[in-house]
Amino acid sequence: AQKVTQAQTEISVVEKEDVTLDCVYETRDTTYYLFWYKQPPSGELVFLIRRNSFDEQNEISGRYSWNFQKSTSSFNFTITASQVVDSAVYFCALSPYNQGGKLIFGQGTELSVKP
Amino acid sequence: DAGVIQSPRHEVTEMGQEVTLRCKPISGHNSLFWYRQTMMRGLELLIYFNNNVPIDDSGMPEDRFSAKMPNASFSTLKIQPSEPRDSAVYFCASSRPPGQGWTGELFFGEGSRLTVL
Predict the structure, then answer these.
(1) Positions of E strands within chain A
(2) A62 touches chain B (CB under 8 A)
(3) Residues lower than pLDDT 50 in chain A
(4) Mutate to test the interface with B, among A5, A23, A45 (most CBs of B within 10 A)
């Protein structure tokens, strides 16, 4: 069975702190996609990143970075110098390689960044 | 470009009533997805379509739920009869065909918040 676990239910940090959101997944597929989505208080879901299972290169986009380690089935997300606008629920998700939209979501981590 | 458009944004109904949720995907997208979000179960896929054809409806909870996509620009999710446990936010999402520049991104609508009393 495929499963995504985000063990951190809630995280609270002070602005400018770095924060890492953990994601561990389970799948028997050899190829798959991993995603992160953001759900701000307004409720919509916003795509952040997709990784292919065969590409373990870490990625950085501004203050965001992602660490994919296939050996530990983890796809962690780090926000550097957090800001109040980063406050949201963050979801990690997994999909089969040939069904990229069929997302299996983790339960989400609610990040609160306080000024 | 307009995003995914869902209606109604909020719906309050009584148990036993029929509920119809509507979705207009982004023009040019060939895949459409219905997701449901609840506190207990989180975000879960109900059904998805490719080129207007239902591909996987294994997430549809019961026969009370049905979804259609009569054309490339419109889809409905119907619940008949509705029950209090159907209360949730229902998201519609669409994506473009795989190809050059494909990111795998699902474009989500703002959701339809359903409350069944």
Answers:
(1) 3-5, 10-14, 19-21, 24-26, 32-39, 46-52, 59-61, 64-69, 74-79, 88-96, 104-105, 109-114
(2) no
(3) none
(4) A45
